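Format notes (please read before filing issues)

Several people have asked whether sequences and structure tokens are stored in separate files. They are not. Every record keeps both together, in the order shown below: the sequence lines, then the token lines. Line labels are part of the format and must not be stripped during preprocessing.
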Amino acid sequence: MVAEMKNVSKKYGRDFCLQDVSLQLHKGKIYGLLGPNGSGKSTTLKLLAGLVEPQAGIVLFNNNKVSKRTSSKIAYLSELDIFYDAFNVENMISFYASQFPDFSLKKADELLTFMGLEKQKKLKHLSKGSRGRLKLVLVLSREPEMILLDEPFSGLDPMVRESIVKGLLSYLDFENQTVVIATHEIDEIESILDEAYVLADGKIIGHCEVEILREEQGLSVLEWLKKTTQPIKEEKR
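Then the structure lines:
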């Protein structure tokens, strides 16, 4: 097991954004962290990355308590778009290479070509979609044990999402890496998921192994998600 959350709760002010959440992440698997906006997906990733601490419970990475030092072995793509607009694409690549020892310049060059990004292009002149592709390049050019992606396809043209998702597979090391994708856009990632967790109102309300779900229940992940969340919606009426 690479990472684990045991009975984790997290508050911002008086409000819980996660309550008694437990999950396990294993090496070589791609996980979907699914649920609507505000369900706790982003907070879960921040806890796994060691960027915030829980009020209760424990978060483990390789059987050690997660801390900010853990970031050296975890690549985290934030939902936020934070760039130095005075930089060009090549400057951002150089900056990340200076910050993370596991950053591969060779891999970055390959990813820039795959994503259709020009090194000399100023960041302030990039479209929202191009900025999103650059974020993916920066994270995937690292060679960490765990990759956490928060809404990685937000702002990308729907026409290119499918090709990017399939292309990502060739840049992952499935023997040594674990990937967690937090998203509400399930159609794009369903084909690459091994397992999925569903969050609603800060609680995990479902977990599935995707292959078993298809073979034994004949359901897609999207169909299973709708079935899992339906009782919650009816309860709120």
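For reference, the curators noted about this record: The CA atoms of residues 76 and 176 lie 16 Å apart. The first strand starts at residue 3 and ends at 12.
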